[in-house]
Fold Sodium-dependent transporter, NSS family protein.
Amino acid sequence: MALSQGGKTRDGWSSRSAFILAAIGSAVGLGNLWRFPAEAGANGGGAFVLFYILCVLMIGLPILLSETLIGRHGQASAPESVRRVAKASRVSSHWDILASMGVLAAFMILSFYCVVGGWVLYYIGQFMADIFASGVTGGAFEGRPAEEIEALLPNLFGNGILMVGLNALFLGFTLFFVARGVSGGIELVAKWMMPAFFILLIAITVYGAFGGAFSQTVSYLFTFEPEKLTGPVMLAAVGQAFFSLSLGVAGMITYGGYVGRNVNLGSTSAIISSADTAVALLAGLCIFPIVFAAGLSVAAGPGLMFQTLPHAFQEMPAGSVVGLLFFIMVGFAALTSSVALLEVPTAWLIDKFRFVRPVSASIVAGGAMILGALAALSFNELADWHPLDFIPLFAGQGFFDVLDGITAKLLMPIGALLTALFIGWFADRKLVDLENGLGGWLHLFWLFLVRFVCPIALIGILVVGIFPGMF
Ligand code: PHE
């Protein structure tokens, strides 16, 4: 749909539901399927999960609404939208730094996110090859020892050229949709892939529920043991909530910029965050029964989805088909998120230099390809290259971890903190009231969260993130 702004028309979502699907598509990704179960497993289950839900409600949702509100008011790329809100509120236009940092963060996350997207493509290939070799009925990788299945990931890590190639392929898919535009490309991918994703997720969860270990999973994920709620667990939960809701990288400001005036942002933000949380929980309910039933460890961290799970598919009837479907589902979710990540800097280039969309998107993707190649090679050829060795926080880390660390520990929390301060304390009250779609006490409660709770929590994340040894 074309949105009109000052006499000019701008491409935008064709309907409210298109926006909701695209925003859910941005939020739901590797963060929900790969990181959430890994974090929940590594941080002791129930305490992490319940605190996570609290973080989504008290910090994630208020910031999500603040971001979409800025975008919808501005109807432009993220930095320009912030400037427009600042202008209408008669405060300094330098607040746009919050969105400029977001553009940079989105670009950096895009670079390493597509590397992981490449791993997903690799697993899709492995399951397909297995089906061709041994048919659809048996378990995955039948007859191959467990060590060999767990070695799939390190084997891939050992092959720099393959990793760079898969990264480029995933980035190429992302570019294809972003270059086609908001309603014709980004919306299209969300409209087809998100429903397919939900069907696959529910099907695999139901399948897992019959595998026997479902009640064990439910008690693991939802039993609250207060003594397990330590500082690091809380920190992991807040960070995860941010990453999962795509906050602090100007993504929701950018997507909000394509929303029409008639959409109620309060209720829409609530739908987006509920859906994202529901998917994270479903991912837990989907993955843990499979892992428990196979008697494997829940605390495998990042290896849980890529190493532990495939090895569990071995025990299942038709495990190679279930495994293939599972990784296709992960690929869909990752693609709708990488599309959002590419859109943030693309929209900025279009606004700033008036390039046409395909050119802007290609420039960003080209840059991300280079950074991504360096990130992919940090697992092999460039393993000894520690670019920020002189900064204690990043000492000894390869390029992939540096990109992850700078964005997760610095750029995202700072971006979100500035957003909360800007909307809570500096933006014009009337403008905010008009845009947020909340009435009465809900409005006051939201304001209280944005003014006090979010900044305090975010400063806490920053301090603990920067000085880990102190706590
Ligand atoms: N929220 C996405 C996920 O869970 C990642 C993401 C972060 C996407 C920031 C866009 C912006 O995987």
